Amino acid sequence: MTRLSITVPWKIFTLIALLGLLAVPAVMAAASTADKTVTDSYGRTVTVPSEPKEVICSGSGCLRYLTYLGAQNLAAGVDSIEKEPQKMDARGYALLNPQFKDLPLFGEYRGKDDPEKIIAINPQLIFKISSSGQADAATKDEADKLSSKTSIPVIMMPYGSLRTAEEQEQMFSTLRIMGEATGKQDRAEELISYIKDTIADLQSRTKDIPESDQKTAYVGGVSYAGAHGIISTEPAYPPFLWDNIKNVAGKMGTQHADVAKEAIVDWDPDYLFMDIGTIQTDNEGGIGELKNDPALASLKAVKNGNVYGVLPYNFYSTNYENVLADAYYIGKIVYPDKFADIDPQAKADEIMTKFLGSSPLKDINSQYKNLGLTKLTI
């Protein structure tokens, strides 16, 4: 039997060997870019996919942040609030993304996660908003336990707010962390710059008003874990701070507070602003109280017709776009000469579009009897 002998030219052999060597760094590079590390708000270093395709957002308002970043298409599941029918809904992010209702359920609202449901959905990454007032150690432990139970990386962040510089930085940090994890860093910086510029514009309009000429005001009916009446307020209500309006409840700190009705009567502010989320309670909430309570009806703001409706501050945490929109409306009412160039409805549309991609203003207002950004009849 004759054997065939095949001779491979040495040049071809050398070329094949070189190509093989060149391929090794490429394979190693591909492996090294498959993951990246992100440090969350609590100092936890989390290894996540470089370009996650499916994530879930747990906790009050977490999905709002994902929508702000324009990454809502990454949502692979939702908590129960996204599926529950709402008689009235002030969550612009949800109104503009009805597809959220059709996504699988991973747990109950306010961060009550079901690890088994999460495993079934199998997202690549979990974003989780930390519980308000919870110690850092407990927050880290909560994130570590969820990651351990699901074998899925968990990034933990606070919700933040616009009330104080510290809480604003928390909000900005959360945007940046989520932006880094989703590849939306540029969008995060764009939105942060817009927020800072908007606040600076508001402050610049009224900064020269002497303290003796600054008006007094009270905001009532602010939702907090549900709708409330007139005694529910924000002592550090950002629109008043930015517009240099004296908040009559301002000495009560920076967190949400309930005040005595008698205190409101004693303060007797120049202006009353009612968060229209209050009408979700019985008898139109705080607006009904102003109409039916003789003591409240005696307030000079009621007698002078200075009672106005503002868009809901909270609905599953703070609606940041509403807060900024309300600030321009309130400024226009209290200091009209300082806001002469502002059409509050048009400004609200602009702000909402910047945050959400388009404006849900008409949809929100229609659900709340068109009481937002308007004078109330008492």
TrEMBL record:
InterPro entries: ABC_Transporter_SBP, ABC_transptr_periplasmic_BD
Domain of life of the native organism: Archaea
Domain Fe/B12 periplasmic-binding: residue ranges: 54-338
Pfam families given in the database record: Peripla_BP_2
Signal peptide (residue range): none
PANTHER family named among the record's database cross-references: MOLYBDATE-BINDING PROTEIN MOLA, VITAMIN B12-BINDING PROTEIN
This protein's name: Iron ABC transporter substrate-binding protein
Taxonomic lineage of the native organism: Archaea, Methanobacteriati, Methanobacteriota, Stenosarchaea group, Methanomicrobia
